[in-house]
Automatic annotation (TrEMBL), chain A:
<dbReference type="InterPro" id="IPR000298">
    <property type="entry name" value="Cyt_c_oxidase-like_su3"/>
</dbReference>
<feature type="transmembrane region" description="Helical">
    <location>
        <begin position="74"/>
        <end position="96"/>
    </location>
</feature>
<dbReference type="InterPro" id="IPR035973">
    <property type="entry name" value="Cyt_c_oxidase_su3-like_sf"/>
</dbReference>
<feature type="transmembrane region" description="Helical">
    <location>
        <begin position="32"/>
        <end position="54"/>
    </location>
</feature>
<feature type="region of interest" description="Disordered">
    <location>
        <begin position="1"/>
        <end position="24"/>
    </location>
</feature>
<feature type="transmembrane region" description="Helical">
    <location>
        <begin position="147"/>
        <end position="171"/>
    </location>
</feature>
<protein>
    <submittedName>
        <fullName>Cytochrome c oxidase subunit 3</fullName>
    </submittedName>
</protein>
<keyword id="KW-0472">Membrane</keyword>
<keyword id="KW-1003">Cell membrane</keyword>
From TrEMBL, chain B:
<feature type="transmembrane region" description="Helical">
    <location>
        <begin position="352"/>
        <end position="376"/>
    </location>
</feature>
<protein>
    <submittedName>
        <fullName>Cbb3-type cytochrome c oxidase subunit I</fullName>
    </submittedName>
</protein>
<dbReference type="InterPro" id="IPR023615">
    <property type="entry name" value="Cyt_c_Oxase_su1_BS"/>
</dbReference>
<feature type="transmembrane region" description="Helical">
    <location>
        <begin position="152"/>
        <end position="173"/>
    </location>
</feature>
<feature type="transmembrane region" description="Helical">
    <location>
        <begin position="110"/>
        <end position="131"/>
    </location>
</feature>
<keyword id="KW-0408">Iron</keyword>
<comment type="similarity">
    <text>Belongs to the heme-copper respiratory oxidase family.</text>
</comment>
<keyword id="KW-0472">Membrane</keyword>
<keyword id="KW-1003">Cell membrane</keyword>
């Protein structure tokens, strides 16, 4: 029984000697990120249920309202999608900057770019909602529109919270420095952001591409 | 829109009674009164005894997994009392001459709260609490992986339960049963706040449970003692892992269904409005996509408990460990493939029903494997019928009957005939009372010393078992019978005189169950009073087999002085066979434990107030609380000083102290296990070295 046997214990002794406030070795960071992965899996279930509900509603839920074919066009959603795809790429650069110990400036810079593209995405989405709304196509019109607003709206809420999270992280990077804690937070935001991108691909395909083609 | 939203004078519990005095409104007023007086009594008691400070510093702000587990179980106990009292009132209502003494609405509220409470605020906190106390000790961990998140889970569940309790005092709960199907629960047919109570209390506890699931899964994956491979893990940890995975995936559909229902009710959406392109059957679909895995969330931890209680009190190794593990995993996977059997009558094709019927019957196979495992563990064992063992044995008999009626109902043809009948009600009580409650009672009786350092009184424990067992059969066997005669569930009263004799027997059974619960309250009371003579400071009061019994009772805050190296499935049995009485320490090193914090409590309480605001359409309050929660989390995110250190010297001292206790405690033979001679360290003298 060697001393290493306790290394897997909670709050491993390898943390010893670190500054007390940063007593989280790489082990702990890995675990936190693993936990966050599991949370994301759970979140994906929510998205898939809304998508499944939408898939039913776009056929059977039109009622007296418009059909997806009448409602959607591909123009704006494509621009929107590009904005989000670019933001996921720039977040990748941001994470690489953190990994290869680039200056914090560069990490923050790319994060800002990411958030700007996220905001563009969100802006286009809200504009589209607004356009539908003034034409009278509100969620109260039909089961289909309810499902549409709920699904896209939930994704939008996720992006919004991602943007707020990113802004707060910029403040924390400035005030707390690039500690292990802040780094894992940035890593988790990254996972979150990329997941939203993947979900959006599904949404774009299901709602807009297949909707327009139907 | 007034500042108080939809809150009216009539919502205060006592007002309807004064407006229209009747037995029904009187009972409602009395129930509300009990809640208010009970809360006041607790406040007075805390103040008079000066317990506020200890309550705050040792319990409310704690991040210790054992204490969090205990609070969960206390919550469940309080809610269990309410749930059983409601059941007794409903049984009495049905034997009273029609139309009974309750209004139809009141009766509907009773069965809705009874179901909601029993599933979400009794069963769930019981199993989450037990997992919290025991699982880390079994796998050699010092705490849950995310102790702060654990506190948030706990207090969100408490908040949800508080909302259900509040519905007795302010306003009404819903009347659509614990499943709350629209369109009945839509805004047109249920315009009051009842459904919103259901939505938001389940939302709070549902989020808490999802977070618990993440916590349990990560703890098991990442925090096992060195050498403890997955296939060396105790069965309770295995069932916890499977339950955790079910929690992570299955709580979400409930949240999605209730968000949709809330949007329909308050934002004019049409998810479930048939005339506007909605599909109300999707609610049933989503609900049971949660609801069926939920059944296995409830039952798997109990299976884990039996897999430890039975070997311990049979003095034998568990029979067929590997098959039990695979049976558990198989049940967890299959649990996602059967949800349609809750609505065979919905109108889908016979093919679909056949597939789900077969899948449902398939679950009987791994479950049957388990029952054989337990029976063969007992076979030729030296059986000692402690309270825990009695509950386990009672479970096996009773659960098999429930399983058989379950396989009957899995046949869509029979399901069409028995749908929504009391036969179904008898079936699921037959699963959940032995399969959940008996398991948790066994677990609490068995592991109680780990948390508190003393055993529970055996005499009252056994009395409670017999009352529960007899009470169960008397209550639910008649319901099978009249269910087959055609009695539907959720009826406020029956006019067919043929049902009456059966209902009377059922009423007697409900009183016996109430007696069982009373015995348990007495059991705890007597045990606390006699705790000096029930103390087992040396630990291991039942010749236990798992790692948790290598610790002294009560277990210290840091759990293990050093994390042991695991080489077998029953490390403690192995150690005892080598003549050890204390696990050999590895090197002592400084360890870190989470510091207490009030943040978990505060965040959850703000969430609860916010949910109350949403229930009564005080949107401003909901928004305000949302912002407050955000600010609290933000403050916590700046707090990096969240750990305290326990030094190697302190751990060494603790080890020496425990060793001393163990060395000065005389060995106790199995015959004296339930006597006051048991101060821990019980041995089978015939086997002991």
């Amino acid at each position: 029984m060697s001393a290493t046997t306790t290394n897997l214990g909670a709050h491993a002794p390898s943390d010893q000697g670190h500054d007390h406030g940063h007593a989280h070795g790489h082990d702990k960071s890995g675990t936190v990120i693993f936990g966050f992965w599991i949370f994301l899996m759970s979140d994906l279930i929510a998205f898939s249920l809304f998508i499944a509900t939408y898939a039913d509603a776009e056929w059977h839920g039109i009622a007296s309202g418009p059909s997806p074919h009448q409602l959607f066009s591909l123009g704006l959603p494509t621009v929107e999608t590009m904005a989000l795809l670019i933001s996921t790429f720039t977040f990748g650069i941001c994470t690489l900057g953190m990994k290869y110990n680039a200056t914090m400036r560069r990490t923050i810079g790319w994060l800002v770019v990411t958030l700007i593209f996220g905001a563009i995405f969100l802006g286009i989405e809200l504009y589209e909602f607004h356009e539908f709304w003034i034409e009278g196509n509100t969620p109260q019109v039909s089961g289909f529109l309810s499902a549409y607003y709920a699904l896209v709206g939930m994704h939008g809420l996720h992006v919004t919270s991602g943007i707020i999270w990113g802004l707060l992280l910029i403040v924390q990077m400035k005030t707390m420095g690039m500690t292990e804690l802040v780094k894992t937070r940035l890593m988790r935001l990254g996972l979150f952001w990329h997941m939203l991108d993947i979900v959006w691909i599904a949404l774009f395909t299901k709602i807009y591409l297949m909707g327009v083609l139907s | 829109m007034s500042i108080l939203g939809s809150l009216k004078w009539d919502d205060i519990f006592i007002v309807p009674f004064f407006k229209e005095p009747s037995l029904s409104t009187g009972i409602a007023a009395a129930a509300g009164g009990i809640v208010v007086l009970g809360a006041l009594a607790v406040l007075v008691l805390l103040t008079v005894k000066g317990w506020w400070k200890p309550l705050w510093t040792h319990w409310i702000t704690t991040l210790d997994h054992k204490k969090i587990g205990v609070i969960y179980i206390v919550l469940a106990a309080i809610m269990l009392i309410r749930g059983i009292l409601e059941a007794v009132v409903m049984r009495a209502q049905q034997v009273a001459p029609a139309p009974g003494f309750l209004s139809v609405e009141h009766h509907a509220e009773l069965f809705s709260t009874h179901g909601t409470i029993m599933i979400f605020f009794v069963a769930m906190p019981l199993l989450i609490g037990l997992i919290n106390v025991v699982m880390p000790l079994q796998i050699g961990a010092r705490d849950m992986e995310f102790p702060f998140m654990n506190a948030i889970s706990l207090w969100l569940s408490v908040g949800g339960a508080a909302l259900v309790m509040a519905s007795l005092v302010v306003g009404h709960f819903e009347t659509g049963g614990w499943t709350a199907y629209p369109p009945y629960t839509g805004i047109k047919l249920s315009p009051n706040e009842g459904v919103d109570y259901w939505i938001w209390s389940l939302m709070l506890t549902g989020i808490g449970t999802t977070l618990s699931g993440i916590n349990f899964a990560v703890t098991i994956y990442k925090q096992r003692a060195p050498g403890m491979t997955l296939m060396k893990m105790p069965i309770f940890a295995w069932t916890t892992l499977c339950t955790a995975i079910l929690m992570i995936y299955a709580m979400v559909p409930l949240a999605v269904a209730s968000v949709m229902l809330a949007l329909d009710r308050h934002a004019g959406f049409h998810f479930f409005t048939a005339t506007q392109g909605g599909n109300m059957m999707n609610f049933a679909n989503l609900f049971w996509l949660f609801g069926h895995p939920e059944v296995y969330i409830l039952i798997l931890p109990a299976f884990g408990v039996f897999s430890h209680v039975i070997p311990t009190f049979s003095g034998k190794k568990l029979y067929g460990y590997t098959s039990l593990v695979w049976a558990t995993v198989a049940i967890a996977v299959l649990s996602f493939t059967v949800w349609v059997h809750h609505f065979f009558t919905m109108g889908q094709t016979a093919h679909l029903n056949a597939i789900f019927g077969i899948a449902t019957m398939t679950i009987g196979v791994p479950t049957g494997v388990k029952v054989y495992n337990w029976m063969l563990t007992m076979w030729r064992g030296k059986l000692r019928f402690s309270t825990a063992m009695l509950f386990s044995a009672g479970f096996m008999f009773t659960f098999v009957i429930g399983g058989i009626t379950g396989v009957m109902l899995a046949n869509p043809v029979i399901s069409f005939a028995a749908h929504n009948s009391l036969f179904l009600v008898a079936h699921f009580h037959n699963m959940l009372i032995p399969g959940l409650l008996f398991g948790m009672f066994a677990g609490i009786n068995y592991w109680f010393p780990l948390a508190f350092g003393f055993r529970l009184d055996e005499t009252w424990g056994r009395r409670s078992f017999w009352l529960w067992m007899v009470g169960f059969y008397l209550t639910f066997m008649p319901l099978y019978a009249i269910g087959l005669m055609g009695a539907p569930r959720r009826m406020a009263f029956f006019t067919d005189p043929a049902y009456l004799p059966w209902l009377l027997v059922s009423m007697v059974g409900a009183l016996a169950v109430l007696g069982g619960l009373t015995s348990q309250v007495i059991q705890v009371w007597v045990s606390i009073k006699n705790r000096e003579s029930l103390m087992v400071p040396a630990g291991d009061p039942w010749d236990g087999r798992g790692l948790e019994w290598s610790l002294g009772c009560p277990v210290p805050e840091h759990d293990f002085t050093t994390i042991p190296n695991i080489t077998s499935r029953e490390p403690w049995v192995e150690a005892k066979e080598r003549g050890l009485r204390v696990m050999e320490p590895t090197e002592f090193v400084d360890i870190h434990l989470p510091k207490n914090t009030s943040m978990g409590f505060l965040v959850a309480m703000v969430a609860t107030v916010g949910a109350f605001g949403l229930i009564f359409e005080m949107w401003w309050l909901g928004a305000l609380c949302w912002i407050a929660m955000f600010v609290l989390v933000l403050i916590r995110s700046y707090d990096t000083d969240w750990e305290k250190t326990v030094t190697a010297e302190e751990l060494r001292a603790d080890y020496e102290r425990h060793k001393h206790v163990v060395e000065t405690t005389p060995k106790v033979s199995l015959d004296d296990e339930f006597t006051t001679k048991n101060r821990g360290l019980v041995f089978d003298m015939e086997k002991a070295v």
